[in-house]
């Protein structure tokens, strides 16, 4: 099957897509966008979070065929050229990046939160990031990063 | 595997009539897990994302008609005032990412005993609208759950909507999980008190979600309308709820723990619902 999808503002085409494969697989293996990470493949870890038509979703749980004609924005699409998005910059500045595996998903989830709620409470941050796991036990720095990004 | 992409409901029903083995996929939060882990290889996927009729809700005198593919996030933000119990249960589903995709229709299609919305659908007297090329019918929630992951749908039918009355009483839902987010219910409980009637139901504590008739009858007779609840009444209610459960031991909890937790959930949710009712009465006076 062929899938036509707009990714980070560009029209893309993926060919020979197996009908049961996920959007995550299409992004990483067919379109060369490895930012979204493949970990649990069951929607538990949030590492593969991307925007689908402006809503954050687990790309491992979206069938490739379901994105035909739709818009996807990945962590690669948040920066403008070399200029990092304030959420990305805050993760760097706050030291919220350890092994880095969970970072792309957390950045997208935090980006969405701050779009909706520019000055979130700690409770709102925790709720918004509840779908993203970090196994380096680094949540405090991540919370710092989101608070910092909220002020930028 | 084929990927079927109907553009409207009539096309979707025609596909399902022709290919009964096609697995409907809306949010994908259950179906894709099964595909990713090689647990399922259906002949076809039937993508419902383009079927606009399924993604809308509407109201009438008889209540809300909730399209099967309306995601939980929209149930919470758009219907929390009309369907408080369903919104509460929706808030406990997965994470924001999952709630943006997962749907009540998907919960019903999967018919897992642990599905979060089932107890609420049972206590609100919801009806499931099922359609096929042959026509449309409405199935009371109580007749919908047939066994573990089995429901009353015919093989050529799709779930198109859920009909729920707008709440005028008190509704509460609570669930026990091993953490606060992203967790399947160890057990869950819903209660609705409205017009001197009581309905209560348990989830993840029997082969299907089920109502608890003895506990309901006890409460309807004993509730001290207009006065605070005695502790003894809450305790007895909890015992009757636990007695109606038929849970299993599994990785998430023992049967004994589930029964105990259900009695606690029953007491707590009853207390919350009663506070709601007393508060409303005093506000009126």
Automatic annotation (TrEMBL), chain A:
Keyword Acetylation: no
Gene3D superfamilies: 3.10.20.30, [2Fe-2S]-binding domain (1.10.150.120)
Matches recorded under PROSITE patterns: 2FE2S_FER_1, 2FE2S_FER_2
Keyword Ribosomal protein recorded: no
Keywords noted in UniProt: 2Fe-2S, Iron, Iron-sulfur, Metal-binding, Oxidoreductase
Phylogenetic placement of the source organism: Bacteria, Bacillati, Actinomycetota, Actinomycetes, Pseudonocardiales
Cited PANTHER family: OXIDOREDUCTASE WITH IRON-SULFUR SUBUNIT, XANTHINE DEHYDROGENASE IRON-SULFUR-BINDING SUBUNIT XDHC-RELATED
GO terms for MF: 2 iron, 2 sulfur cluster binding; metal ion binding; oxidoreductase activity
UniProt protein name: (2Fe-2S)-binding protein
Pfam family, one: Fer2_2
Xref: InterPro entries: 2Fe-2S-bd, 2Fe-2S-bd_dom_sf, 2Fe-2S_ferredoxin-like_sf, 2Fe-2S_ferredoxin-type, 2Fe2S_fd_BS, Beta-grasp_dom_sf, Diverse_Oxidoreductases
Positions of the 2Fe-2S ferredoxin-type domain: 1-78
Species this protein is from: Amycolatopsis acidiphila
From TrEMBL, chain B:
Record Pfam families: CO_deh_flav_C, FAD_binding_5
Keywords carried by this UniProt record: FAD, Flavoprotein, Oxidoreductase
Keyword Oxidoreductase (UniProt): yes
Database matches in SMART domains: CO_deh_flav_C (SM01092)
A GO molecular-function descriptor: oxidoreductase activity
Gene3D superfamilies assigned to the protein according to its UniProt record, in alphabetical order: 3.30.465.10, CO dehydrogenase flavoprotein, C-terminal domain, Uridine Diphospho-n-acetylenolpyruvylglucosamine Reductase, domain 2
Residue ranges of domain FAD-binding PCMH-type in the record: 1-169
Highest taxon above the source species: Bacteria
Record InterPro entries: CO_DH_flav_C, CO_DH_flav_C_dom_sf, Diverse_Substr_Oxidored, FAD-bd_PCMH, FAD-bd_PCMH-like_sf, FAD-bd_PCMH_sub1, FAD-bd_PCMH_sub2, Mopterin_DH_FAD-bd
Protein name, as recorded: Xanthine dehydrogenase family protein subunit M
Residue ranges of coiled coil: none
């Amino acid at each position: 099957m062929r899938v036509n999808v707009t990714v980070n503002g560009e029209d893309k085409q993926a060919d020979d897509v197996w009908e049961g494969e996920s959007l995550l697989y299409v992004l990483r293996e067919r379109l060369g966008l490895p930012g979204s990470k493949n970990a649990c493949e069951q929607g538990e870890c949030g590492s593969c979070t991307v925007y689908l038509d402006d809503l954050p979703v687990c790309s491992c749980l979206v069938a490739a065929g379901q994105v035909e004609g739709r818009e996807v924005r990945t962590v690669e699409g948040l920066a403008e050229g070399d200029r990092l998005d304030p959420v990305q910059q805050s993760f760097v500045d706050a030291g919220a990046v350890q092994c880095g595996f969970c970072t792309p998903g957390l950045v997208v989830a935090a980006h969405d939160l701050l779009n909706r709620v520019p000055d979130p409470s700690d409770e709102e941050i925790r709720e918004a990031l509840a779908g993203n796991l970090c196994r380096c036990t680094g949540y405090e720095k991540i919370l710092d990063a989101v608070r910092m990004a909220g002020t930028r | 595997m084929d990927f079927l992409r109907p553009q409207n409901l009539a096309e979707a029903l025609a596909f399902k009539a022709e290919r009964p083995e096609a697995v409907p996929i809306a949010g994908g939060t259950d179906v894709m897990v099964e595909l990713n882990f090689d647990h399922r290889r259906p002949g076809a996927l039937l993508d419902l994302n383009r079927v606009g009729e399924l993604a809308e809700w509407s109201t009438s005198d008889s209540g809300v008609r909730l399209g099967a593919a309306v995601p939980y996030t929209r149930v919470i933000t758009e219907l929390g005032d009309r369907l408080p119990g369903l919104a509460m249960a929706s808030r406990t589903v997965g994470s924001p990412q999952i709630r943006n995709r997962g749907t009540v229709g998907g919960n019903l299609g999967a018919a897992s005993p642990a599905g979060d919305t089932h107890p609420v659908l049972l206590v609100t007297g919801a009806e499931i609208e099922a359609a096929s090329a042959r026509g449309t019918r409405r199935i009371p929630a109580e007749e919908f759950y047939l066994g573990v992951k089995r429901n009353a749908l015919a093989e050529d039918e799709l779930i198109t909507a859920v009909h729920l009355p707008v709440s005028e009483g008190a509704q509460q839902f609570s669930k026990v999980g091993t953490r606060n987010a992203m967790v399947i219910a160890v057990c869950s409980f819903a209660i609705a008190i409205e017009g001197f009637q009581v309905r209560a139901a348990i989830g993840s504590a029997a082969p299907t979600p089920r109502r608890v008739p003895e506990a309901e009858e006890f409460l309807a007779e004993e509730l001290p309308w207009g006065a605070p609840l005695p502790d003894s009444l809450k305790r007895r209610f909890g015992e009757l709820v636990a007695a109606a459960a038929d849970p299993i031991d599994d990785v998430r909890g023992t049967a004994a723990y589930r029964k105990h937790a259900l009695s606690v959930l029953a007491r707590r949710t009853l207390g919350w619902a009663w506070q709601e009712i007393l508060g409303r009465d005093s506000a009126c006076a």
